[in-house]
Specification:
The protein is mainly α and 266 residues long. Helices cover 69% and strands 2% of the residues. The chain has helices at residues 6-27, 32-51, 55-69, 74-91, 115-137, 142-163, 166-179, 186-212, 225-243, 260-263, and strands spanning 247-248, 251-252. It starts with 5 loop residues before the first helix and ends with a helix.
Length: 266
């Protein structure tokens, strides 16, 4: 997960304040020059927010930049409001955006994907999810499993960004941040794999959303479908684990879900 440095936060706040006047002036215009000037500013602010440990603000700027690139003039006013809100919150010692992963921001909406591109993209995601499932269900060392899962989530994020699937890209980015240190130790790897297992149904739901061209209904807190899926799976796992402590779904329990005494690793 990202960390916030007080000095970088101060510099980010100053940069936001410095650009605010020009952004407000551009918001009152409806010409291409205003769109392009604002787009360059937003692009710079996106990078600064990322460096300052404000990933949610960086993501918001990325979505706004995409709207500007597509010629959406209403984004000009939304940018001003986003910057003003970020300045107020940062000045009070809060994060720039109050929406925290995995709760999706209100402006996170899917783009229409070109049919051929969507087919290729969904096939890539399906393949990566299968490999994630293999890693979660394997009996290999948890550190190796966590490293493999991290690579697959990172690849899915890149594929989603390239395809224009912003909900999937946003969710994978947040999950990736939580997996970043998963290979540092056995305990860290186990925690990382637990995190992926917790949200595996959400990834599958987002894949289905992209395939069917609908909105991100599978996000935690956004709709209830993902909760019932994971609840049913967790309940089944608990029942099977009680009857066979080292096996789930007829398979040997993955190494990361066993205690050191069960795996022989102390």
């Amino acid at each position: 997960m990202s960390t916030r440095d007080p000095e970088l936060t101060r510099l980010l706040t100053m940069e936001l304040e410095r650009h605010l006047v020009a952004l407000e002036e551009n918001a009152g215009k409806r010409d291409e020059a205003a769109l392009e000037s604002t787009r360059r500013t937003v692009h710079a602010l996106k990078g600064s927010a990322g460096l300052a440990g404000e990933p949610e603000l960086a993501s918001a700027m990325q979505r706004l930049e995409r709207r500007l690139r597509e010629g959406e003039h209403t984004a000009l006013e939304d940018i001003v409001e986003t910057v003003k809100r970020a300045i107020r919150r940062l000045s009070k010692g809060e994060t720039a955006i109050d929406q925290a992963w995995p709760e999706p921001p209100p402006d996170l909406v899917p783009n229409a994907l070109e049919p051929l591109l969507r087919s290729q993209y969904v096939a890539e995601v399906v393949d990566r999810l299968a490999q994630i499932d293999d890693a979660l269900g394997s009996t290999i060392d948890p550190v190796d499993a966590a490293s493999a899962v991290y690579r697959h989530v990172h690849t899915m994020k890149g594929a989603a960004s390239a395809a224009g699937d912003e909900p999937m890209a946003w969710f994978c980015h947040g999950l990736e941040e939580r997996l970043r240190n998963g290979s540092s130790s056995r305990d860290a790897a186990t925690a990382a794999l637990n995190e992926v297992a917790k949200y595996r149904a959400v990834l599958g739901g987002l894949r289905a959303d992209a395939q069917q061209g609908r909105g991100p209904v599978s996000f935690p807190g956004h709709r209830g479908r993902w909760r019932s899926r994971m609840g049913e799976r967790a309940s089944a796992d608990r029942c099977l684990a009680r009857s066979s402590p080292n096996h789930v779904h007829g398979r040997a329990l993955p190494a990361w879900r066993r205690s050191p005494s069960q795996t022989g690793v102390l």
